[in-house]
Amino acid sequence: MPARSLWKMAASGAAVVLVAAGCSSDGTEDTETLPNSVVIGIAEPQHLIPSNTTETNGSQVLTSLFYPLVKFDAKNEPVEVAADSITSPDNKVWTVKLKDGFTFSNGEPVIADNYIDAWNYGAYGPNGQGASYFFERIDGYADLQSKDPDGDGPEKAPAPKSKTLRGLKKVDARTFTITLSAPFAGWKSVIGYTAFYPLPKAAFSAPGVIKEGFEEAIIGNGPFKLKGKWEHDSQIQVEKVADFKGAVPKVDAITWKIYQDTQAEYADLVTGNLDVQTQIPIESLGKASSDLGDRFQKSPNSAFAFVGFPTFQKEFAKPEVRRALSMAINRQEMTDQIFQGSQSPATSFVSPVVAGFRPDSCGANCEYNPVKAKQQYVAAGGPSSIEITYNADGGHKAWVDAMCNQIKSSLGVNCTGSAEPKFADMLTKVEKKQPVGLIRLGWIMDYPLMENYLGPLYSTNGSSNYYGYSNPAFDSLVAEGSAAKTNAEAIKKWQQAEDILVQDMPVLPLRFGQNVFGFSEKVDNVTVDLFQRVDIYKIEVATF
Amino acid sequence: MFRYLVRRLLQMVLTFFGATFIVYALTFANADDPIQALVGERPVSENVRRALTERYHLDDPFLVQYWYYVKGLLTGDLGRSLTGRKISEMMAQAWPVTIKLALIAIVISATVALIAGVVSGIRRGSIFDNVTLVLTLIVLALPIVVLAPLAQLVFGIQLGWFPPTAGRNPSVYALLLPAFVLGSLVVATQLRVTRASVAENLRADYVRTARAKGLARRRVIGVHVLRNSLIPVITLIGVDIGALMSGAIVTEGVFNIPGVGFNLLRGIRTEDGPLVVGFVSVLVIVFLVVNLIVDLLYAALDPRIRYE
User: Which intervals hold domain ABC transmembrane type-1 (chain B) (predicted)?
Assistant: First the structure.
């Protein structure tokens, strides 16, 4: 082959590259061209069907597409929004009246059936919806589930007894009743959760079957509607619905820009390509205040970090040992030095964001007192070495090591942090009751009630009680609170339950979370709520 | 030549199934609980677990699962990721941007490596040669996990020359910075191979002959030296495509480019077997095709190599 053709080959190769590279260079994001719009960073949502959305990103997007039955006011009390009234004479049968004139963004009026259909879909076991346990309290939930006959495959589970919840009844077009299997005073707070949004008729291709592709172009009853489709891994754009009947946001459009890496998101925030980042990565916290000035802010959220005692193990069976360990650690030092003030020390068993929270309810047991801790520890015969197990993929090593050092110097016992690759590995060991020592855990609430901390975390059958704590007196107080007539009465019971925890110390409360967020010069009035979501009704484009 | 091609294609089919089997087996061996990994640190409710287990045949033995997978593959169905998205759709979205990034990276690195390598090779021991050698040492020593965020910080945030992230439909300009970072992975070795190869060929008999014939220096270097020096470099560029793909896992994460590397990283993080195997299968095909092209290019470059 003559030499000339070699160069020709190279030239044509280069041409191919240029064509390939240039062919879509005009397809850059057109987000800046929209006036009065903002760009908010999220991670790729797992799902957008409300009853399958349990993580922050999906629920953040849904806040713009849907209008909830209730929202939460400054005191975290539920206030009717899409509902005209939600009443119950006995906390068992609840009547929901919907406001008139609301429509889905495709024009369908919002009626009682939309709620009943959506909730039935969410609760039906075989649909495998992530948030289906929220419907547990509704009468008839058990009939929508089925058990695998031989525990774990190969035989298939039979179809559940029923496809619809017995507890949901339509009264008229805009009224329906919810019957609970047991009275629950806090129910009005529960239905503020994402899982309780309605779905339009257009969502279903047959009764109880969601149309293929509906999730990609989801239709809601909220102030915004989807512009185009969900562009996976890239962005979700929403624009205002014309003459929306409810509260009207101040911006005309929102682009939910999707990031996989929070540091990349931070880079875009600093350069002004992004307007809001709700959680600044811990690596960037040090320079955030110089990068952003007073656009770097903090607000409380519902996260609660703690370490659980394997109460089923002999060494940790005595409450005195657990109390001594709690006094041996300096929570303030840990939050200041490792989290640089992005979290605050926890000295209670529920988060400060819920009604009924009392600061320092843990009292002397959560105060740093190495001398007393050591006396008590020796007297109670605590183990001579402590192990704290954590999952290595969650960035917990630094503070676990710090906590171990504190335990070592306070109590003079050996302490090691031991990493499991993933949270699931840790859980498997805990479930098999292998001796893994103390276990690192965390909790973010689903709805703002004390019960949402007490029930799952500390009651005998709690969904996240991995450390086997069980106290019948505690269980019955939580249940009595749930059945109470009023919220005030409920809180009283729940506080009594919390006092039992102070004596028993099944876990070491460590830290309460905070939103550490930042925003660009383009936007104003940015608030991040307890669920780490930007308030889309308050945010506005700054005027200069 | 034709028979060679057919033989190679048959080999490719075997390699493809062998490779996917191994990847599938490794993913399977590694995944202890993909459903738990998917939802993170929350407890998975019983009905979700059952629905997903049934959908992905997770409680069947490994070989049965692999059989379902191959069956899907042969009927053109790559299946769904554990989040329920069609993998074929995810690929259709991910590949264009990764190809674009890799091509720009290859063009940048090959241009730099060839020009600097040839000059260094001709003027061995000069200041230029020594400086490039030191520079390549530095680039070789810098892992991409350091280089990518550093480049983003300096050129994207502080100097503001490039946008710090690229996104789904980036302009060529937005891709330049990540492409430079990605290209830096391979440029040093390419440059050094070019330099050594040129230096060696300059001493070859046919070059002495060409010079003795009184050919112009440009022609000696341009045709006789360069063409023969390119053979190892082209092999290297072919192999480098693999290095670029693994580098893309980091680069695409840092620059927020939702391409192949980005999806692979997510798949590995969430133990999403179908997703990982799907993307890796296509990567295997890419490798095989590139290697075939490289082998065929040999023949074009060196008349001494002819396939029968």
Answer: 95-298
For the segment(s) A37-256, the CATH number from 3.40.190.10, 3.40.630.30, 3.40.50.740, 3.30.2350.10 is 3.40.190.10
Domains for chain B: give ranges and CATH numbers.
Answer: 88-271 (1.10.3720.10)
Asked if A128 contacts B35 with a C-beta cutoff of 8 angstroms, the reply is no
Which residue of chain A comes nearest to B263, CA vs CA?
A: A233
Q: Tens digit of pLDDT per residue, chain A (544 long)? A: 344 444 444 444 444 444 444 444 333 444 445 688 999 999 989 899 999 988 889 999 999 999 999 998 888 888 999 999 999 998 899 999 999 989 999 999 999 999 999 999 999 988 888 888 889 899 999 998 877 655 555 556 678 888 999 999 999 999 999 999 999 988 999 998 899 999 999 999 998 899 988 999 999 999 999 999 998 888 999 999 988 988 999 999 999 999 988 889 999 999 989 999 998 888 888 888 889 989 999 998 889 999 998 888 888 888 888 999 999 999 999 988 888 888 899 999 999 988 889 988 888 888 899 999 999 999 988 888 899 999 887 778 889 999 999 999 998 899 999 888 878 788 888 888 888 889 999 888 888 899 999 998 999 888 888 888 889 999 999 999 988 888 889 999 999 999 999 988 999 999 999 899 999 999 999 999 888 899 999 999 987 6
Cβ–Cβ below 8 Å for B172 and A21: yes
Task: Closest CB to A264: pick one of B93, B94, B254.
Answer: B254
Within 8 A of A271 by CB-CB distance, chain B residues are: 156-157, 160, 163-164
**Residues with Cβ within 8 Å of residue B103, at least 6 apart in sequence:** A17, A20, A21
ipTM exceeding the 0.90 mark: no
Interchain pair B300, A9: CB under 8 A? yes
Nearest to A271 among B93, B94, B160 (CB): B160
User: Residue A152 is nearest to which of B59, B222, B223, comparing CB atoms?
Assistant: B59
Query: Is B172 close to A125, i.e. CB distance below 8 A?
Result: no
Our CA-based measurement puts residue B220 at a distance from the nearest CA of chain A, in whole angstroms, of 12
Put simply, the answer to whether A261 touches B300 (Cβ < 8 Å) is no
Distances in Å between the alpha carbon of B42 and those of A242, A388, A444, B50?
38, 20, 10, 16
Where exactly are the structural domains of chain A?
37-256, 301-513
Give the chain B residue nearest A270 (alpha carbons): B157
Please report the DSSP string for A392-431 in residue order.
GGGT-HHHHHHHHHHHHHHH--EEEEEEESSHHHHHHHHH
Residue A362 makes CB contacts below 8 A (sequence gap 6+) with A326, A347, A348, A349, A502, A509
Give the minimum alpha-carbon distance from A410 to chain B in angstroms, rounded to a whole number.
Answer: 31
Surface of A (217-276) touching B: CB under 8 A: 231-235, 257-261, 263-265, 267-268, 270-271, 273
Q: Do B303 and A154 touch (CB under 8 A)?
A: no
CA of A454, closest CA in chain B: separation in Å? 16
Query: Is some CB atom of chain B closer than 8 A to the CB atom of A126?
Result: yes
- The architecture in CATH of the region A301-513 reads Roll (3.10)
Report the distance separating Cα A230 and Cα A211, nearest Å.
16
Neighbouring residues of A429: CB distance < 8 A, sequence distance ≥ 6:
A389, A420, A436
Contacts of B183 in chain A (CB under 8 A): none
User: Quick one: which H or E segment has residue A489?
Assistant: helix A487-504
* A18: Cα separation from own chain's centroid: 45
A143 to chain B, any CB pair closer than 8 A? The answer is no
Distance from CA of B115 to the nearest CA of A (A): 14
Q: What are the DSSP calls for A333-353, one per residue? A: HHHHHTSTTSSEE--SSS-TT
